[in-house]
Design a protein that fits this description.
Helix content: 25-40%
CATH topology of the largest domain: Creatine Amidinohydrolase
Strand content: 5-15%
CATH superfamily of the largest domain: Creatinase/methionine aminopeptidase superfamily
Strand order of the largest sheet: 6-5-4-1-7
Radius of gyration: 24 Å
Number of domains: 2
Bound molecules: glycine, manganese (II) ion
CATH class of the largest domain: Alpha Beta
């Protein structure tokens, strides 16, 4: 946990963003896995963590904007709990650690909220995303669960996004610690990527590395020789010479700050000419995008710059043709790069996504596109100092998508479909780093994870 003042200051800053009423933060509850007492590993809600810091189930925090008070609701353990879980600090003791001096048993929360409702006070809450929280909130607010979404507080959503998007030094340190663990996960995976190994052997081992550092994975490991499927969670393929292995994996710290790194490596440790050509095109896009980062630039502009680098490279290889700018303007690159360049990262690996992507990534200046490809860009607006973003361009040869486009002769002035046919067995490549927006541009966070052809090959062959 950070010092108590960090949490008090965050709540004070949030109060400045809001006008009146109560702000209600519900912590997460345990969620059943296959029967009630066998639960998924507990993961606290990220906004609750940000403002109230406490990391166990069945807690709520309330900030009263009108009288300035703050309260944590939760129950002290009884002897039955102590038998199973051991002695726990009291809620009062825990609350003091996050700068809150008023607590009450959990059942008092319903009384407070009912009273506020009856008085017609504004009650601010964030969009719930878990079944348990939806039911709890629905009871507290006396609202049908289907009506909760319509009643979330836009003012609160915007305030939380404004604060959580900008990372302080303590948060950046947490993120960098997790990138250093990701370094070990990724370099280990690189060394294991040999023909005959089954994907799950590597996926299981690198998840174990994360756990052995007290850092559960921040999202299910993506590790596949079928990297053309963007989020491939199937780990049953045997690695074969000639394929590339996409490894997209990160972990989260004890305080739940994430890392999210992707590397793509040739099975066996040596890039073929064909692999190297596509790889270096993705790498150029990654480097050009990172170099373009600066305060005030719309992230969508950087996304389109990465797309331009991709078209440039594919044109050199004879896969694309025509005017490069026009190709990007018309979205021809989206056959190969159908996703967005990146997303914010922090307490959530896709930071704040539960608030609504458009609130996080767009504003009155940069409106989300509806076009294929650009519509998947989660974040388009201007970058600010101390935003942490991922930069993750990729090139994928998706046979099903190629067939559809080819049958429609779609954007054929920019795509050499005969040549594309010869890449249908290629797979995909993505290269992802986590960066901090600084006064002078971007700092790639954490210990550098090999990404040039030479460094990847050296790592894979160094035993
Ligand atoms: N690393 C998975 C993603 O960014 O969606
Ligand atoms: Mn990512």
């Amino acid at each position: 946990m950070f010092p108590a003042k960090v949490y008090s200051d965050r709540r004070a800053m949030l109060r400045k963003e809001l006008s009146k009423g109560l702000v209600l933060f519900l912590g997460n509850q345990d969620s059943a896995f296959n029967y009630p007492a066998n639960t998924y590993s507990f993961r606290q809600d990220s906004s609750f963590l940000y403002f109230f810091g406490l990391d166990h189930p069945d807690l709520a925090g309330v900030i009263d904007l009108d009288d300035g008070t703050e309260q944590i609701f939760g129950n002290d353990v009884d002897i039955d709990d102590i038998i199973w879980m051991g002695r726990q600090p009291t809620i009062d003791e825990q609350a003091l650690n996050v700068g809150v001096d008023t607590t009450a048993p959990l059942k008092e929360l319903a009384v407070l909220i009912k009273d506020a409702r009856e008085k017609g006070r504004m009650i601010h809450f964030l969009p719930p995303y878990r079944g348990e929280t939806i039911l709890w909130l629905s009871d507290l607010m006396d609202l049908d669960h289907l009506k909760l979404r319509e009643n979330v507080s836009i003012e609160l959503i915007k305030g939380v996004i404004k604060l959580r998007m900008v990372k302080d030094d303590l948060e950046i340190k947490e993120i960098e610690k997790m990138i250093d663990v990701a370094w070990l996960m990724h370099t280990t995976a690189m060394k294991m990527a040999k023909a005959g190994v089954v994907e799950q052997e590597i996926a299981g081992l690198i998840e174990g590395i994360a756990l052995s550092h007290g850092a559960p994975v921040s999202f299910p490991v993506i590790l596949s020789i079928n990297g053309q499927t963007l989020h491939n969670h199937y780990h049953g393929n045997t690695l074969t010479e000639g394929r590339m292995l996409v490894i997209d994996a990160g972990c989260e710290s004890g305080l739940h700050y994430a890392s999210d790194i992707t590397r793509t490596v040739p099975v066996g440790g040596k890039f073929s000419e064909r692999q190297k050509e596509i790889y270096e095109t993705v790498l150029n896009a990654n480097l050009a995008a990172t170099a373009a980062v600066r305060i005030g630039i719309p992230f969508r502009e950087i996304h389109l710059l990465a797309a331009t680098e991709i078209v440039k490279g594919l044109k050199t290889l004879g896969i694309m043709k025509g005017d490069i700018r026009e190709a990007v303007r018309k979205g021809a690159h989206t056959l190969f790069f159908p996703h967005g360049l990146g997303h914010p990262m922090g307490l959530d690996v896709h930071d704040l996504e539960g608030m609504g992507e458009n609130f996080v990534g767009y504003d009155h200046e940069v409106i989300r596109s509806k076009e294929f490809g650009l519509a998947f860009l989660r974040f388009g607006r201007k970058l600010q100092k101390n935003f942490v973003m991922t930069i993750e361009p990729g090139i994928y040869f998706i046979p099903e998508l190629i067939d559809i486009w080819k049958n429609e002769n779609k954007l054929a002035e920019f795509i050499n479909y005969d040549k594309v046919e010869t890449y249908k067995d290629f797979g995909g490549i993505r290269i992802e780093d986590d960066i901090l927006v600084t006064d002078t541009g971007a700092r790639v966070l954490g210990k550098p994870i090999p990404k040039t052809v030479a460094d990847v090959e050296k790592t894979m062959n160094d035993n």
